């Protein structure tokens, strides 16, 4: 069992409350702690004070979309190291990101991505994989 | 009858015809200002033919009256300024027109006055049977240069517009240009070059004859809403001219009976063949016109279809995303119930939730397939090729799908002699293909095995190596008819449509993806109940 103090924190950024809720319930049921943000701006505010282990970031959001938020996270020295998983309904977002920001082409390993409809178990497997890579698990 | 009288009468007829055309054009003048000027030109052209006719008809040697008749033919220059004006109006270049045109009118009036009242243009008139000719005065050449200038302006105006015009206007201009060319050519030769060269003017009335062509063709082009193709007119003209020449030759230059008979036969056969020629040209032109209309209709229809297609595509994209996001939520909640995350539930509840989740999954994959299909159809599917180890890629898919095979108690195996085969792949899209093939194999196999094999082989086409991936199963097999259209859109095994869920798009998309990898995909089966093999062939990196 994971002790309370060692719980890994996941920041869920999605404009759809139901989707956030599903992820929150599932993640907490397997021992993660979660935080929620409804768009990029809210996410950046939370990141100003907290450092989650992994960010689940939706692509299409009002206010500030996923890609812009990703750029902001990766531009900031304090948040650059945080692993980001882009959630998309369109498939590989890499092309689009490269199109917007050529600089990112070289560091395309700076994020992972999953289709939004991916099975929840698979999502958790991916998060755990990342935590293992980072030596956090 | 005397040939001079005959020439006179024929010129009167031409004059009369010109006047009638002038009258008709006058009627049309209300519709278009250009027609007024053309009517005026036709009127003067009629006068010109009339005076030419008068000269011949009333000819008397040594008579001052005959000299005046002859001089009046110079009044013909008055038709030129209205005709020039007409071309400016017709081509809609009427800016700063007044000054230029006034100069022309002034020139024409001065010339016709001097020609009539003095000996500056016509010194004397005499008969050189069967022509009436004149001795040119000192200003004669200048007058003819004036005519040349006007004709050049007319032709330049019309030609300049001709190259920019299309459709009906282009056809109209073809008529004008043909008519004016005939008139101008005859005029330049008979009233220009010949008089300047031989210092007398025996053929000046030929211009009057040819005036009928330009007034006739021009009026026809303006009045008719629908024009014959110019080719038909040209062919008809040619046939008529040749027929007249043959007739002329037969009647005047042939005296011996055998030759007369021979030439008569030629004329008769020509009269028989000529109309056939005209008709065949007419038919060809009609067919071309029909084709043009058809082409235009098709083009319009095609354009509309394109728009509809775009609309369909936009709608599909919109609807797809709108369906996907609530379905993802349905799937998510169903998963939470089915796996007990929301608290323990009865077996029935869990099973029901599992069914909801599967249905949502199916719908999502249908939408994904439709979106892929749209991308393929629009040529928008992008590929990111990277050199990858195919063995690893296939192996990981096999492992991913192993639970599905285990659920149905099927033996799922992967086999390859190599540990590493490097191939250029878009991993995501190519994985989709292999996933689809193995997934199908599991779906369509009730008991037995599914074997996946990856091997290198020599290509028989080029001296190059290639990779062959085989997904074989002991399942229900594929009938011959289905085998043929297996990789087409929405082709599914009708016998299992209800039992086994699918969209009928997977293999079509798979084929498109494999083609983009410069590969081949095909299926083999001995028949129903005999299992099947799906192969993908890829070139080496």
Automatic annotation (TrEMBL), chain B:
<keyword id="KW-0597">Phosphoprotein</keyword>
<keyword id="KW-0472">Membrane</keyword>
<keyword id="KW-0175">Coiled coil</keyword>
<feature type="transmembrane region" description="Helical">
    <location>
        <begin position="38"/>
        <end position="59"/>
    </location>
</feature>
<keyword id="KW-0812">Transmembrane</keyword>
<feature type="coiled-coil region">
    <location>
        <begin position="284"/>
        <end position="314"/>
    </location>
</feature>
<feature type="transmembrane region" description="Helical">
    <location>
        <begin position="71"/>
        <end position="91"/>
    </location>
</feature>
<feature type="transmembrane region" description="Helical">
    <location>
        <begin position="103"/>
        <end position="122"/>
    </location>
</feature>
<dbReference type="Pfam" id="PF02518">
    <property type="entry name" value="HATPase_c"/>
</dbReference>
<keyword id="KW-0418">Kinase</keyword>
<feature type="transmembrane region" description="Helical">
    <location>
        <begin position="259"/>
        <end position="278"/>
    </location>
</feature>
<dbReference type="InterPro" id="IPR036097">
    <property type="entry name" value="HisK_dim/P_sf"/>
</dbReference>
<dbReference type="InterPro" id="IPR036890">
    <property type="entry name" value="HATPase_C_sf"/>
</dbReference>
<feature type="transmembrane region" description="Helical">
    <location>
        <begin position="175"/>
        <end position="198"/>
    </location>
</feature>
<dbReference type="InterPro" id="IPR005467">
    <property type="entry name" value="His_kinase_dom"/>
</dbReference>
<dbReference type="InterPro" id="IPR004358">
    <property type="entry name" value="Sig_transdc_His_kin-like_C"/>
</dbReference>
<feature type="transmembrane region" description="Helical">
    <location>
        <begin position="204"/>
        <end position="223"/>
    </location>
</feature>
<feature type="domain" description="Histidine kinase">
    <location>
        <begin position="318"/>
        <end position="541"/>
    </location>
</feature>
<protein>
    <recommendedName>
        <fullName>histidine kinase</fullName>
        <ecNumber>2.7.13.3</ecNumber>
    </recommendedName>
</protein>
<keyword id="KW-1133">Transmembrane helix</keyword>
<keyword id="KW-0808">Transferase</keyword>
<feature type="transmembrane region" description="Helical">
    <location>
        <begin position="232"/>
        <end position="253"/>
    </location>
</feature>
<dbReference type="GO" id="GO:0005886">
    <property type="term" value="C:plasma membrane"/>
</dbReference>
<dbReference type="GO" id="GO:0000155">
    <property type="term" value="F:phosphorelay sensor kinase activity"/>
</dbReference>
<feature type="transmembrane region" description="Helical">
    <location>
        <begin position="142"/>
        <end position="163"/>
    </location>
</feature>
<dbReference type="Pfam" id="PF00512">
    <property type="entry name" value="HisKA"/>
</dbReference>
<dbReference type="InterPro" id="IPR003594">
    <property type="entry name" value="HATPase_dom"/>
</dbReference>
<dbReference type="InterPro" id="IPR003661">
    <property type="entry name" value="HisK_dim/P_dom"/>
</dbReference>
<feature type="transmembrane region" description="Helical">
    <location>
        <begin position="6"/>
        <end position="26"/>
    </location>
</feature>
<dbReference type="GO" id="GO:0009927">
    <property type="term" value="F:histidine phosphotransfer kinase activity"/>
</dbReference>
């Amino acid at each position: 069992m994971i002790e309370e103090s060692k719980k890994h924190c996941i920041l869920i950024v999605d404009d759809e409350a139901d989707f956030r809720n599903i992820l929150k319930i599932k993640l907490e049921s397997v021992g993660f702690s979660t935080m929620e943000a409804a768009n990029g701006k809210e996410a950046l505010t939370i990141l100003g004070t907290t450092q989650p282990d992994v960010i689940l970031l939706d692509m299409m959001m009002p206010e500030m979309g996923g890609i812009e938020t990703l750029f902001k996270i990766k531009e900031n020295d304090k948040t650059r190291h945080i692993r980001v998983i882009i959630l998309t309904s369109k498939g590989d977002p890499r092309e689009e990101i490269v199109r917007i920001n050529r600089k990112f082409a070289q560091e395309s390993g700076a994020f992972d991505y999953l289709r939004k409809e991916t099975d929840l178990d698979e999502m958790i497997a991916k998060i755990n994989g990342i935590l293992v890579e980072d030596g956090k698990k | 009858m005397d040939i001079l009288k005959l020439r006179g009468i024929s010129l009167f007829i031409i004059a009369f015809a010109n006047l009638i055309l002038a009258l008709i054009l006058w009627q049309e003048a209300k519709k278009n200002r250009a027609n007024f000027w053309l009517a005026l030109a036709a009127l003067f052209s009629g006068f010109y033919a009339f005076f030419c006719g008068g000269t011949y008809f009333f000819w008397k040697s040594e008579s001052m009256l005959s000299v005046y008749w002859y001089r009046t033919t110079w009044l013909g220059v008055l038709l030129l300024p209205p005709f020039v004006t007409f071309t400016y109006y017709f081509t809609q270049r009427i800016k700063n027109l007044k000054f230029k045109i006034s100069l022309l009118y002034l020139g024409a009036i001065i010339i016709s006055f001097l020609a009539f009242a003095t000996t500056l243009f016509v010194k004397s008139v005499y008969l050189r049977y069967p022509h009436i000719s004149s001795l040119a005065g000192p200003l004669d050449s200048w007058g003819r240069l004036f005519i040349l200038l006007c004709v050049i302006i007319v032709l330049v105006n019309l030609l300049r517009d001709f190259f920019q015009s299309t459709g009906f206007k282009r056809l109209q201009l073809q008529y004008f240009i043909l008519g004016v060319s005939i008139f101008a050519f005859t005029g330049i030769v008979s009233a220009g070059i010949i008089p300047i060269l031989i210092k007398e003017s025996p053929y000046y009335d030929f211009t009057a004859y040819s005036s009928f062509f330009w007034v006739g063709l021009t009026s026809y082009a303006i009045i008719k809403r629908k024009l014959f193709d110019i080719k038909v007119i040209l062919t008809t003209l040619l046939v008529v001219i040749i027929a007249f020449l043959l007739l002329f030759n037969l009647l005047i230059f042939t005296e011996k009976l055998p030759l007369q008979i021979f030439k008569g036969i030629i004329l008769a056969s020509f009269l028989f063949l000529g109309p056939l020629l005209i008709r065949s040209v007419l038919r060809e032109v009609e067919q071309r016109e029909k084709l043009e209309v058809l082409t235009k209709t098709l083009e319009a229809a095609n354009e509309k279809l394109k728009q509809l297609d775009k609309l369909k595509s936009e709608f599909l994209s919109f609807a797809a995303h709108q369906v996907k996001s609530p379905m993802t939520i349905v799937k998510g909640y169903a998963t939470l119930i089915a796996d007990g995350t929301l608290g323990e539930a009865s077996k029935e509840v869990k099973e029901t939730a599992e069914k909801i989740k599967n249905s949502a999954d199916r719908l999502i994959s249908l939408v994904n397939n439709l979106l892929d299909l749209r991308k393929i159809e629009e040529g928008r599917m992008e590929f990111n090729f990277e050199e990858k180890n195919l063995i690893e890629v296939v192996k990981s898919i096999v492992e991913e799908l192993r639970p599905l095979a285990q659920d149905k108690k099927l033996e799922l195996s992967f086999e390859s002699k190599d540990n590493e085969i490097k191939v250029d792949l878009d991993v995501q899209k190519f994985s989709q293909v292999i996933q689809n093939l193995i997934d199908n194999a599991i779906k369509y196999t009730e008991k037995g095995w599914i074997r996946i094999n990856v091997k290198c082989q020599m290509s028989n086409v080029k001296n190059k190596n290639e990779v062959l991936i085989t997904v074989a199963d002991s399942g229900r097999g594929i009938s011959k008819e289905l085998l043929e259209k297996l990789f087409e859109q929405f082709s599914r095994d009708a016998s299992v449509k209800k039992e086994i869920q699918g969209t009928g798009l997977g293999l079509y998309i798979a084929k498109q993806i494999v083609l983009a990898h410069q590969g081949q995909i095909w299926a083999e089966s001995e028949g129903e109940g005999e299992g099947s093999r799906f192969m993908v062939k890829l070139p080496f990196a």
